[in-house]
Design a protein that fits this description.
The protein is mainly α. It has one domain. Helices cover 42% and strands 0% of the residues. The radius of gyration is 15 Å and the shape is globular. The N and C termini lie far apart (41 Å). The relative contact order is 0.15.
């Protein structure tokens, strides 16, 4: 019998506790992965809590008007950048 870990309170608690335990400003991660122009308008709080491992958007040919779903969005940096690219009709 398998367990559905995506809906496991134990897993959710573990991830939440791990993120809460991170101390200090981790914005260097974002500033290393993204171009400065991409980070314009991204809330400072999102930058300070950045734990990303890659800038996936540099590979995405996002067009105005498209619909984007950001799963596992962390601090939301990719969501903000994608929203800027798709514009108000996306």
């Amino acid at each position: 019998m398998s367990r559905d870990l995506m809906h496991s309170k134990e897993l959710k608690d573990l991830v939440r506790d791990a993120y809460c335990a991170i101390e200090g400003d981790t914005s260097l991660v974002a500033r290393t992965l993204y171009e400065p122009a991409d980070l314009v308008g991204v809330p400072e709080v999102a930058l300070r809590r950045s734990l990303g491992v890659n800038n996936h958007l540099r590979f995405a040919d996002i067009m105005a008007g498209e619909t984007i779903l950001d799963l596992g969005c962390g601090g939301g940096i990719d969501a903000v950048i994608a929203a800027r690219r798709i514009g108000p009709t996306g």
